[in-house]
Structure formats: C-alpha cells, structure tokens
C-alpha cells in the first residue's frame, strides 16, 4: 500500500492525492479527484468491483472506499485525508512501513 500526499492550497494541512494497492499482480489506485472510482491496472472502473475471482473486492462504504483482500487486508480511504489499514495478527512481523516492522 502506497500513499501519496498532496499539499492543499492556502493550507498548512496536506491531503492524500492517491493511494495505490498492489495485490496478486493487480495494481489498484484511488485518486482524490475520482470519488466513486478506482484505476485497476491503469483503467478506470466504477465501484463496486470484484477482482481476481473474488480475492479482491472494492466497494463504497459511506463516503469512503473499502478494499478487502482474501487474506484480510482492509484499506479504507475517504478520498481526502484519511486512510485506515488493517491486517490480521498472523501477518505480525511480516510487514513494514505504516503497519510496523
């Protein structure tokens, strides 16, 4: 999961310009200005979508996008400034970055 920040004009606070998720040779990108859509391997798709025979599901949850994988990775993004990443405890010690080392 990669998050790219962008500066907001006339503000000291930044927002999230895009979030990119790499799962099972699929690249999913949610771009701040494309609410309700994601790019799958660089092709725009409207939500909800199911990929890789249901191993990866992406749908709208309230005003946010929720991506769920078959190994219980969950990424919630509100198309502005908030990302939540959840992983099962079984992956403890197998990840780095925002989810720890």
Automatic annotation (TrEMBL):
Signal peptide: none annotated. Keywords: Disulfide bond, Glycoprotein. Residues 1-101 form the VWFD domain. It comes from the Eukaryota. It holds the Pfam family VWD. One of its GO terms (cellular component) is extracellular space. InterPro entries: Mucin_vWF_Thrombospondin_sf (IPR050780), VWF_type-D (IPR001846). PANTHER family: EXTRACELLULAR MATRIX GLYCOPROTEIN RELATED (PTHR11339), VWFD DOMAIN-CONTAINING PROTEIN (PTHR11339:SF373). This is FCGBP protein. It comes from Sylvia borin (Garden warbler).
């Amino acid at each position: 999961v990669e998050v790219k920040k962008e500066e907001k004009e006339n503000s000291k606070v930044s927002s999230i310009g895009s979030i990119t998720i790499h799962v099972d040779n699929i690249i999913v990108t949610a771009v701040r200005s494309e609410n309700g859509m994601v790019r799958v391997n660089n092709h725009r798709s409207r939500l909800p979508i199911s990929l890789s025979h249901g191993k990866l599901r992406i749908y709208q949850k309230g005003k946010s996008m929720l991506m769920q994988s078959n190994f219980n990775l969950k990424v919630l993004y509100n198309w502005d400034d908030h990302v939540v990443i959840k992983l099962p405890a079984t992956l403890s010690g197998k990840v780095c970055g925002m989810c720890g080392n």
